[in-house]
User: Fold this.
Amino acid sequence: MARKTTGIPGLDSMLQNGFPFPSAVLIAGEPGTGKTTLAVQSLFHGAKEGEKGLYITAISEPQWLVQKFLSSFSFYNQEVVEKGMIDFIDLGPTIVKNPSDMLDIIKKKIEQCQPDRIVIDPITPMIDLLQWRGETREFMHELFAYLKAFNSLVLITSEMSYDDISHSQESYMVDGVIVLSYPEEEKVRRKFLEVLKMRGTKHTTGRQLIDITDEGLAVQAGLR
Assistant:
């Protein structure tokens, strides 16, 4: 099976040397666990390897604000962005005005950019907004069918707890699920990463300790 290295220290060795390619991987966890950091760090790693990247967000934050946050990490490279190796797309205004146009816009952006790696961060606002319209299931099926037909690595972040994962549509539709958590143990919170599933991969199981520093996210595999 073809693979793409993750760009996350300690993670490749847990996944038989990288993410399956092509594939869609869900990065799940509660706010503050490191989902965006992991996904965008992998995106910039791909750009360093000569891949085209696309970052799609739906949180209605100005692009400069998102990039300002990311620029605090050493993996962020403004020159890569200026050269067009990574495109940043904000779907926030579209979601507010006409949620039904989301899927068509996502498809259009992907076809324009022809990316090797795609990050959707997070998918939660899209699901929440479509839920009351009764369009969530149809949207999810069409989105994932399209993404899987496209020859790329797709990382999708979603804000959910460990208990929510087994009840979520997206966890059944993706090829892999990675969950990030920060439980309190003896009055101290530590962050962990766990690979719940990964198609065609004999992956390391169990929670693995992670660190998030100025260099980004790293997995301390074997440490608990």
Remarks:
- The first strand starts at residue 3 and ends at 4.
